Amino acid sequence: MVKMTLGVNIDHVAVLREARRVNDPDILQALYVACEAGADQITIHLREDRRHIQDSDVTNIMAHSKVPVNLECSINTEILNIVADIKPHRATLVPEKREEVTTEGGLDVFSYEEEIRFAIEQLHDSIIPVSLFVDPTIEAMDKSKELGAEMVELHTGHFSNLWAMLNSNLGHSNHSVKELELPRYELSEKLEEALLKIQEAATHAKKIGLEVAAGHGLNYHNVHEMMNINEITELNIGQSIIARSVFSGLSDAVKEMKKLTTRHV
Predict the structure, then answer these.
(1) Which of 12, 45, 52, 204 is catalytic?
(2) CA 95 vs CA 54, 65, 66, 100, 229: distances in Å
(3) What's the alpha-carbon Rg for the chain, to the nearest Å?
(4) Most buried of 106, 154, 173, 176, CB within 10 angstroms?
(5) How confident is the model at residue 24 (pLDDT cuts 50, 70, 90)?
(6) What pLDDT was estimated at residue 264?
(7) pTM (2 decimals)?
(8) Distance (Å, whole) CA 65 – CA 32
(9) Which CATH architecture has domain 5-260?
(10) pLDDT over 70 (residue 127)
């Protein structure tokens, strides 16, 4: 059996807190509940604009989490200095734009090669393992290995959008993905292509010695597709778990996702 690690991203608990600028809901309570419910890892993103997770949150989570903490961050020098000082169990380097609602794509490991190399070296100097959040291409896998990362997290946003446009009511909502408003047979073909790219990237990454994670847009309905790719040994899921918790409670939401992401012989 290939072990699958579930990283629960609790950023959206802080999003709700920051909407009213009060300490409710409490991010530490979310940490405790997620861990108790079976989260193997806690994932948080310290953004440059501090739109949700704050510096004090990172410090408190590191002090109180009984499971590893995966800290997502940009290659901004100020942020890297904070991460190097805090020393999370892993740092995941991600792209970041102030105007985006959420991370829109993988880290450009080609255009920012030198900056990323420097960031990895700085984090390694602090004995922090590094993962790169990248698009699922063979070229990105090779470049990630060359730059010195131990791990890659495959960006599953395109796959997730295709799945939702084909299998949910997303296309009939205000949040329809305009460029994917296509006939169903085209969406089906593109979904198969997206899955194949993820599989090929994961296979190649493992072959060249990288650990493989995946995340972005994964939910209770599409996560089974990732479970069919044995090279992927970690999933980082946030928004869908927190959204489900509004109705079922965070503990049950985490337990349900944990059940879906457990591989059996």
Answers:
(1) 45
(2) 18, 26, 28, 10, 25
(3) 18
(4) 154
(5) very high
(6) 72
(7) 0.94
(8) 8
(9) Alpha-Beta Barrel (3.20)
(10) yes
pLDDT digits (tens, 9 = 90+) for 1-20: 567 999 999 999 999 999 99
Q: If 0-12 CB within 10 Å is exposed, 13-18 middle and 19+ buried, where does residue 49 land? A: exposed
Burial class from Cβ neighbours inside 10 Å (0-12, 13-18, 19+) for residue 1 reads exposed
Q: What is the pLDDT of residues 51-99, one digit of tens each?
A: 999 999 999 999 999 999 999 999 999 999 999 999 999 999 999 865 5
Over the stretch 209-237, which tens digit does the pLDDT of each residue have?
999 999 999 999 999 999 999 999 999 99
C-beta neighbour count of 59 within 10 angstroms: 13
Q: Where are the domains of the chain?
A: 5-260
Identified catalytic residue from 12, 52, 155, 216? 216
DSSP 217: S
> What distance in Å separates the CA atoms of residue 47 and residue 165, rounded to the nearest whole number?
29
Catalytic residue among 12, 52, 72, 153: 72
Alpha helices per DSSP H over 104-249: 113-125, 138-147, 157-167, 184-207, 224-227, 239-248
> Above pLDDT 90, what percent of the chain?
92
The question of whether 72 is a catalytic residue gets the answer yes
Q: Please list the residues that pair with 41 across neighbouring strands.
A: 7
Is residue 155 part of the annotated active site? The answer reads: no
The tokens for 120 are 């990895």
Do 240 and 9 contact (CB within 8 A), yes or no? no
